[in-house]
Specification:
Among the domains of chain A are: 78-103 and 110-219, Rossmann fold, CATH 3.40.50; 334-420, no CATH class; 491-499 and 525-598, no CATH class. In chain A, 30% of the residues lie in helices and 27% in strands. Chain A contains 16 helices and 37 strands. In chain A, helix 2 (69-75) packs across helix 7 and helix 10 (369-375) crosses helix 12 (410-432). By secondary structure, chain B is α+β, with helices and mostly antiparallel strands. Chain B is built from 13 helices and 22 strands. Chain B has helices spanning 2-19, 32-56, 60-63, 88-94, 183-191, 196-224, 226-251, 307-319, 358-372, 436-442, 550-558, 564-571, 584-598; strands at 68-73, 79-82, 104-107, 122-131, 134-144, 173-177, 180-181, 257-263, 273-282, 285-289, 336-339, 390-396, 402-408, 445-452, 468-474, 478-483, 493-494, 504-508, 514-517, 520-526, 531-535, 604-605. In chain B, the strands form five sheets. Chain B has a seven-stranded antiparallel beta sheet. In chain B, strands 14-15-21-18-19 form a five-stranded antiparallel beta sheet, covered by helices on one side. A four-stranded mixed beta sheet of chain B has the order 8-9-10-11. In chain B, helix 2 runs antiparallel to helix 6 (196-224) and helix 6 packs across helix 7 (226-251). Chain B starts with a helix and ends in a 14-residue tail after the last strand. In chain B, 59% of the residues are buried. The chains are: A alpha+beta, B alpha+beta. Chains A and B meet through helix 3, helix 12, helix 13 and helix 16 of A and helix 2, helix 6, helix 7, helix 8 and helix 10 of B.
């Protein structure tokens, strides 16, 4: 029988999750990441996980690979030397950017502006010019074009980007220029903006395209090496690369469009959260992935993570489809400090992996969130099943600095740090829920990352999302998401026209063409016809508004005019949900989009029978905790000994190899048939007793928010 | 019957409350961490207000460029979060017609709200926030609306002599009374605008942003209890007071220090206008005296400077570098003392014209920075482009539809302790430029060039930013207006840095004729095919350019931000014009010579004071 393998390459470890398609069993392996060439660690891991499962690695038929190669190239500034060809007069498009300086007033005094990824000295303009309606104002001069490309090659570029004004309206010049360039550049890959993002706003389009060029040679080298290594080891499995929008694509597509992989890892976490939530009976899930320096939060509805089309990588706004993951500088390593105002601030500075929190005993002396957890007694003095010991005295010394600066006791200072970091994450969770018009009470909260389960219960109290779900392996959840990912890509075009001025024939023709492109792509990715699906969206707004909403549409609606009324109605609903008002005014369609999806057979996790026995068998001892001004005694449990149906009364600390879970007083945990721990307030009954009707309804769309807006 | 309904609603409400978020703990006013949590929540609310406004408004000035400012206040009007300082207490003291739940106030007349907003294009909305029937605070937001009537499109005539010549003035009125929209009032106001739909949309977006704040403050009152929320707000104000007391002692001199800078002219041929500020401290109290500032101008460049707003500017400027995460509130107001001569450029008498106050408003920061720069090394920056340059363009497009564009431009950011000033960036926080593809899609124009202007930034160890260089071709007949300054008064350099270049505007007619336009002019007729070259001022340099690393100068030349000539004349770096390689020997020699010639360097390096014209001539 076939096996599927998910691989998530992180900064420190490479996680591998092997899935047996017939038995539903999962085997997990971790190997150290090899940052110089991550494919070495990947190959080591493949052999390790296969031997753990006792199978021949060749029985793996599909490998789903999440990669940070592109992300790291951007964040570490280690991408290619990119040349850029723009319309003459716009050479400084990246240098001037949107001209923005940060708030508040006088924020410019401390602003640090990153250098453009295509340096000004490698940017040249050409005289060809297109109008906003796609009319040629100045034709492309081929001799001039050749001269410009040769000049850039002579300056030693490693990748070339073409981004001309208004190319979204007519890509003719970019196409021709790319053809000319490819005749000259040889090995230097050429990317044109119409291929990456045929949408208007020149800075964002140019930036996104340049970013693709910037990471492309590195990605190409990496994937090339990976293929070679797989071949050397006689591995025949097909490898797919995880995209930022939670889908996957072939190695060839990933080599050409690596910019679509910038949020590869976090997207896996969001997909996995949606999946686990749905499995546990909660189709609406807020998830937070708390790592060392930051926390990523995301929202899933009806088992699907929401996808947006502009995200931030470092300081750069990148316009590619991504799971709506919002990152906030709050993690286990975030440093607490007290500035001149006497306020308690936590983050965004972080102790990182080195030296790490003070309690790691590796030379760190600044008080971190992890140190606060140690002082409060939430984090037992041994981590990673005894592989790592925590130094409680050093944690206390560090946190004492905050206590002294604020005139608080050591324990209250630690509690303050714990509360503030929770508040920071709460703000991020509100951003993806309340600010998008969703009521968090309709969602469960799922904790990911090593540090997440320590904060999940407290966060659920703040945002009132129940239950708090602690999956079995919070630290390797991204890999589980990869197993669940469909093959996916998008095709779009800009229209910018009020609905009243669009005739149905135009819409139908455009949708036909985009649909054909999507199906052709699915075919080229070798997807069987039965598993092909194409979805359509319109980006819509009121006339001249600056931002659009993506509205799902069906081609058959546009057989007659009522289809237009239907999409306008949908748009108005979404506008009202987000901004609480509508007006009687023209609505325009900005972009049309086809999303190509090749469905992958879904992972079925093993369901365990509910035990009648008590959870006492999993108890390993007692711990003293400090919680909101009081000491309390918590029972300590070993996660691996917990069985489906077990009830864990709070306060409790649950230990496992990659994480620690805290249940605060007034709450309890229950273990569900998939061995997730669901944390509830004592006055609410859990799922194994009685289904709670307010959450987890899978049927259809919610009709607006329950709160009046 | 009615009583029953009320009773039932009350029941429902308390039932809803018990199922709401269980409090993590009974919070008390003295709990210091609660303060930080409430501060955090208010910060989130403020960002949410911005998000709602920027994403839902229609005029590009608000939406793309972010000319809009949010605020949340205490019931007595003191600001707990915001940017411009509170004017609500002034409003409360003068409003006599009652304040009810569901009311929404609207105003635009600076003379009717003590300069809380400083020209009539800014529409300010004010919402009282009630919690369980009690006033729990205020939410406010104002935004620049595109047209409010008057003689020229955009309502910013550069030649107005009184505020009656600038458009429709809205005194404080109830736009909504107890939740009900006053349609008659709205019709009256919108009827006076050339762009009624856009204004309507923007106004509703502003109201929606305030409603967001209203909701968030109510939630905080629910979560912590109203009394805890309010006492925490008071404690936040107090915290800022104490921090500011320390900063005043660190950064203000005990002896009086004066600083002067000039606004070029008033748009009617008079100028320059001196702005003079003298600062000192006595103990932990700071004094800011505008005595010596020129009398008000006949033209519309007068700036009705609200005293509270100025205190906020000072506070933000001082504190920002030391705790950038702080939420600005006005708790420190009692520590600052401001005097403004009446009838001066910064406190004009009614009915002086105010439309083009942006030049004095922004120059104020150059003056404040210059005065503070004497004592506070972290804040010692040069002067910038010193205004908010606008271009307005209106007419009828090829479909016969009226169009009106207002675009805010940027310029050179000053050289700073942390590094070079940014090229063609916005001095105002969070403003963004309008994408050229957006301009070309919605307006009959073609952008031929857009970037920063080579050599405009003043030379320095940290270079001043280059100004904007933008070239437009108009594709329809129409009218344009220009609003800019620093055409005659150069942005100064500091600690040995040199001044930045001045601004200029040139109109090239289809006939080939080239016309130099003044920095402030409206009603200029343009024809299809005319080209406008729009250059704004650069920023001043920071510290001696002769110490700037040779490689940095060479890199700027390679990037076409600095010319070979300027590298030689101002930085003393000799480059081969062909290869751009450095001639090290010649460079060392030249740098030595310039150093000798320049002699001792003062703290500030100014350009020449503009020649006096019109009523400012003193002979």
């Amino acid at each position: 029988m076939a096996y599927r393998l998910a691989i998530d390459v992180g900064g420190t470890f490479t996680d591998l999750l092997l899935f047996n398609e017939s038995s539903g069993e999962l085997v997990l392996a971790k190997t150290p990441s090899t940052s110089d060439d991550p494919s070495i660690g990947v190959l080591t891991g493949i052999h390790k996980v296969a031997s753990l499962a006792g199978i021949d690695p060749n029985r793996v038929s599909l490998i789903l690979h999440g990669t940070t190669v592109a992300t790291n190239a951007v964040l570490e500034g280690k991408g290619a030397r990119v040349g850029l060809i723009t319309t003459r007069g716009f050479e400084q498009v990246l240098h001037v950017a949107r001209g923005q300086t940060p708030g508040p007033l006088a924020g410019w005094i401390i602003m640090i502006k990153p250098e453009p990824m295509a340096p000004l000295e490698l940017t040249l303009g050409i005289s060809a010019r297109m109008s906003a309606t796609g009319k040629v104002l100045v034709p492309l001069d081929e001799n001039e074009a050749r001269g410009v490309v040769r000049e850039l090659c002579a300056r030693g570029i490693q990748a070339l980007t073409i981004s001309l004004l208004n190319s979204y309206a007519n890509s003719e010049h970019e196409r021709k220029l790319k053809q000319i360039a490819e005749e000259i550049t040889g090995d230097v890959a050429v990317t044109a903006s119409y291929e990456i993002l045929p949408e208007f706003r020149e800075y964002e389009r140019t930036l996104t395209t340049v970013m693709n060029s910037y990471v492309r040679p590195r990605m190409h080298l990496y994937l090339d090496g990976m293929q070679r290594r797989l071949k050397q080891d006689n591995l025949t499995a097909r490898m797919e690369i995880v995209r930022s929008d939670g889908g996957v694509m072939s190695l060839k597509a990933a080599s050409e469009y690596p910019v679509t992989t910038l949020l590869s890892g976090p997207s896996g976490g969001a997909v996995a959260s949606a999946y686990i939530g749905e499995l546990s009976g909660f189709a609406n899930v807020l998830s937070f992935d708390m790592g060392g320096t930051s926390t990523d939060v995301a929202l899933s509805r009806d088992g699907m993570p929401s996808v947006i089309r502009e995200t931030r990588v470092g300081q750069y706004p990148v316009k590619v489809a991504s799971v709506d993951v919002h990152s906030v500088g709050a993690g286990g390593g975030s440093i607490a400090h007290v500035p001149i105002t006497g306020a308690l601030r936590v983050g965004p500075m972080s102790a990182g992996a080195e030296p790490g929190p003070a309690c790691y005993g590796r030379g760190g002396s600044e008080p971190t969130v992890t140190d606060a957890n140690v002082v409060l007694g939430y984090l037992p003095p041994e981590l990673l099943a005894g592989e790592m010991k925590l130094n409680e005295a050093q944690a206390a010394t560090a946190v004492q600095k905050i206590a002294d600066a604020m005139g608080l006791s050591l324990l209250d200072a630690a509690q303050g740090i714990y509360d503030i970091v929770n508040e920071n994450m709460f703000g991020a969770l509100r951003l993806v829920s309340v600010q998008r018009g969703y009521d968090p009470r309709d969602f469960a909260l799922l904790a990911l990352g090593g540090a997440g389960p320590l904060h999940a219960n407290a966060l659920s109290c703040l945002i009132n999302s129940w239950p708090a779900i602690i999956p079995t392996v919070p630290g390797v959840l991204s890999a589980l998401g990869f197993l669940h990912a469909d093959i996916r890509t998008e095709f779009s075009r800009t229209l910018i026209r009020p609905v009243a001025r669009i005739d149905l024939a135009t819409i139908r023709k455009s949708m036909d063409e985009l649909g054909s492109q999507a199906r052709a792509w699915l075919k080229s990715e070798n997807i069987a016809a039965a598993r092909q699906r194409v979805q359509f969206q319109f980006d819509m707004r009121y006339y001249r508004q600056g931002y659009e909403f993506a509205i799902d549409v069906q081609p058959e609606w546009f057989k007659n005019q009522s289809g237009m009324e239907r999409v306008v109605e949908r748009f108005k609903n979404v506008h009202h949900r987000n901004y609480a008002f509508n007006i009687d005014y023209e609505v325009e369609i900005v972009n049309l989009r086809a999303i190509a999806i090749g469905e992958v057979p879904k992972v079925e996790l093993k369901r365990h029978a509910v035990t009648k026995s008590g959870s006492e068998s999993a108890q390993t001892g007692k711990r003293k905790l400090y919680h909101h001004g009081q000491f309390t005694i918590a029972t300590v449990y070993e996660r691996s000994r917990l069985k489906a149906g077990h009830r864990i009364p709070g306060p409790a600390v649950i230990t496992q190899a990659d994480s620690t879970t805290l249940i605060v007083p007034g709450h309890y945990g229950e273990v569900d048939p998939y061995l997730n721990i669901l944390i509830w307030p004592n006055d609410r009954r859990g799922t194994t007793e009685k289904k709670v009707s307010a959450v987890g309804t899978k049927s259809g769309h919610r009709k607006g928010s329950k709160r009046s807006r | 019957m009615a009583n029953n309904t009320v009773a039932r609603q009350k029941e429902n409400r308390s039932a809803a409350k018990s199922s709401a978020a269980p409090r993590t703990r009974p919070a008390t006013a003295t709990n210091k961490v609660t303060l930080d949590i409430i501060e955090n929540a208010l910060r989130n609310a403020r960002h949410e207000m911005d998000t709602v406004l920027f994403r839902s408004a229609m005029s590009p000035v608000i939406r793309e460029q972010h000319d809009g400012f949010p605020m949340i206040c205490m019931p007595d009007g003191r600001m707990v979060v915001g940017q411009f300082g509170s004017y609500v207490s002034g409003f409360i003291s003068t409003w006599k017609r009652g304040i009810d739940e569901g009311d929404v106030f609207l105003m635009s007349d600076p003379y009717k709200c003590r300069g809380a907003i400083s020209h009539i294009n800014d529409w300010m909305v004010l919402i009282p926030i009630f919690h369980e029937g009690e006033l729990a605070g205020w939410a406010s937001q104002f935004g620049h609306t595109i047209d409010v009537g008057g003689p020229v499109s955009g309502s910013l005539p550069t030649d107005a002599t009184t505020i009656f010549g600038e458009g429709t003035r809205i005194p404080p009125v109830k736009l909504f009374a107890k939740g009900k929209l006053n349609d008659d009032l709205l019709d009256l106001i919108l009827n006076n605008s050339r762009m009624p739909t856009m204004n309507y949309f923007d106004l509703m977006a502003i109201v929606a942003a305030c409603r967001t704040a209203e909701k968030r403050v109510s939630e905080l009152c629910e979560r912590f209890g109203r009394e805890v929320y309010l006492s925490s707000c008071r404690a936040l104000l107090d915290r800022t007071y104490r921090a500011m007391a320390k900063l005043i002692q660190q950064n203000l001199p005990e002896h009086k220090v004066s600083f002067e800078d000039y606004v070029d002219d008033d748009g009617r041929g008079n100028g320059p206008y001196k702005m003079k500020l003298t600062i000192w401290r006595e103990g932990e109290h700071g004094y800011f005296d505008w005595t010596g500032t020129d009398p008000q101008a006949p033209g519309p460049i007068n700036f009705f400077l609200n005293e509270e707003m100025f205190k906020m500017f000072i506070g933000v400027y001082l504190i920002m570098v030391f705790d950038p995460q702080i939420l600005f509130n006005d708790g420190f107001y009692p520590l600052l003392h401001v005097s403004q001569p009446e009838g001066s450029l910064i406190l004009p008498k009614f009915p002086a014209a105010l439309g083009c106050r942006t030049h004095a408003l922004t120059r104020l920061f150059d003056v404040l920075g210059g005065a503070l720069g004497n004592q506070a090394p972290d804040l010692t920056t040069a002067a910038g482009y010193g205004t908010s340059p606008y271009l307005l363009y209106n007419g009828y497009d090829q479909n016969g539809e009226f169009f009106h564009l207002m675009e805010i431009s940027f310029g050179g950011i000053p050289g700073r302790p942390i590094g070079d000033g940014m090229d063609a960036h916005s001095w105002w926080p969070l403003f963004e430029n309008i994408p050229s593809e957006y301009l070309e899609t919605y307006y009959p124009l073609t952008v031929l060039e857009y970037g920063s202007r080579k050599d405009a930034g003043g030379a320095g160890f940290h270079r001043g930013g280059n100004g904007v260089h933008k070239v437009y071709r108009f594709e329809a007949d129409g009218e344009i207006a220009i609003h800019d300054d620093r055409e005659r008064s150069q942005p100064w350099g500091i600690l040995g840095g040199l001044p930045g270049s001045t601004s200029s505007k040139t109109l090239v007619r289809t006939t080939g004729e080239s016309v130099s336009l003044p920095s402030k002019i409206s009603g200029v007729k343009v024809q299809r095919g005319d080209v406008l070259i729009y250059d704004t001022a650069g920023g001043g340099g920071w510290k001696n350019p002769l110490d700037r690393p040779v490689e940095s100068v060479q890199a700027d030349v390679r990037r076409k931000l600095v010319s070979v000539e300027k590298a030689r004349s101002d930085y003393g770096v000799v480059l081969s014009p062909e290869t751009l390689e450095v001639d090290t020997a010649a460079t060392n020699q030249l740098r030595k010579r310039i150093r000798q010639d320049r002699g001792e360097i003062g703290k500030f390096t100014f350009g020449p004071i503009p020649q006096a014209i019109g009523v400012q001539r003193r002979d």
